Amino acid sequence: MSGSHLDRPSPDQIPPDQVSLDQVAPDQSSLDCVAANRLALDQGSCYSCDPTVAQFLDEWMKTKTMTLSPTTVAWYGYVIAKHIAPELGQLRMSQLKPVHIQRLYAAKLQQVPGGPTPISRSTARCIHRVLHAAMSSAVRLQVIERNPCDAVEVPKGRRPQPRYWRPEEAARFLNAARNDRLFALFHLALGSGLRRGELLGLRWTDVDLDRQTLTVSQVRVRAGDEVVTKEPKTPGSLRSIALSPDVCETLRRHREAQSREKLLMEEAYEDHGLVFAAVDGRPLNPDYIGCQYFRRLISLAGVPEINFHGLRHTHATLLALGGVPLKTVSARLGHSSVKITGDIYSHVLDRMDRSAALKFDAILSKARDASPGELE
Predict the structure, then answer these.
(1) pLDDT of res. 312
(2) Is residue 130 part of a domain?
(3) What is the CATH number of the domain that holds 39?
C-alpha cells in the first residue's frame, strides 16, 4: 500500500475494538439479501439482489483474506470501518454515485471549526484506492455496471520528503546508544536499511558473520491487534545483503551477550532463534521498539526526532549522497524497482544532479587551463 503514508495510521495503530462491518445491516430484508448473495457467490453466480455498500464491502473483505497479507487486510478493514462504511455504508450499491464519493473526500479534507481533524491528501488517496478496488470487483461480479470511482477527482499531492539524519547525527545517536542492550538492532538498522519488521523477524540462521551477509526471509509485523510472523510482502523483499565489518563485530558482541542471557534464564528462556529478542527470548513488540524505546534513545542522544523508518531513510540517503549507484541502493532496500527508489529519494537525486553540473564545469575549466602538450 503505498504513496506517502506519513499520516496514514500504520497497521500497528489500528484500534483493537474496531467496529465490525457486520454491524451495519440491521433490517431483516438486508440480512436476507446478504444470505442470498452469499449463496449466489458460492454457486459461482453474480449477486442476486442489490446489497448496501457496507454489505458488499463486508463480503469483499472476506475474499481479500485469501489473497492479501494479514497487515494489508487489517489496513483495508481499518480504512473501510473508519472512513467509508460510516458515510456510504447505508446506500444501496445501485445508488452509489460519483458525487457521493466526491462529497466524502471533500468533507474529510475540510477543516471545520470544532470538527474532527481533517485527513491529508495522502490519506484521501489511500481511501480512494481501497474503494476503487472494491468497486472494480463489484463491476466484475455484475453487481454494478460501472465503477463510480472512475469519475471522481482524486486529491493530488507530492510525496513528502523522507526525514533522515546527517552523518554526524547518525554517529552521535550510535555513540549515545552504544551501551544499550539493543544497540546492535539500531546499528544494523542504520547499516543495512532493513525495515523494522525485517529486523524483528531476523534469525541467527539468516546471518553469516564470516561471509558478512544476511538474508531477509521473514518479517514480524502487526496485523490489527495481533503481531504475526510471515514472509516478506514482495519477491524483492526476499534478499541477501552485505554487511560492513563494524556491523558484523557489533552482531558478534550481541550474540555473546545473548548467550549469557540464555545461561542466566536457564529453562525460562524461550529460544526462537531470533537475533533480537527480549531477555527471556520472547519476540519483541514492534510498537514498543519503534516508539517508546527508540524515542528514549533519541532523547539521550540529543538528535532530531525521526520515526523508526527514518533509520532506513538515513541509510539510503547517505549511500546515495556517497555516490553509491541507485540500483545498488534499491537492491539493498528490497524495492521492486529502481523507479520506486528514485521517487522516494528524489531530494538526493536533485543534489547529485547539481553536483554533476558543477563537476562538469570543473572538468572543462581544468581542460582550458591545461597546456596543449598536456591535452595530447
Answers:
(1) 95
(2) yes
(3) 1.10.150.130
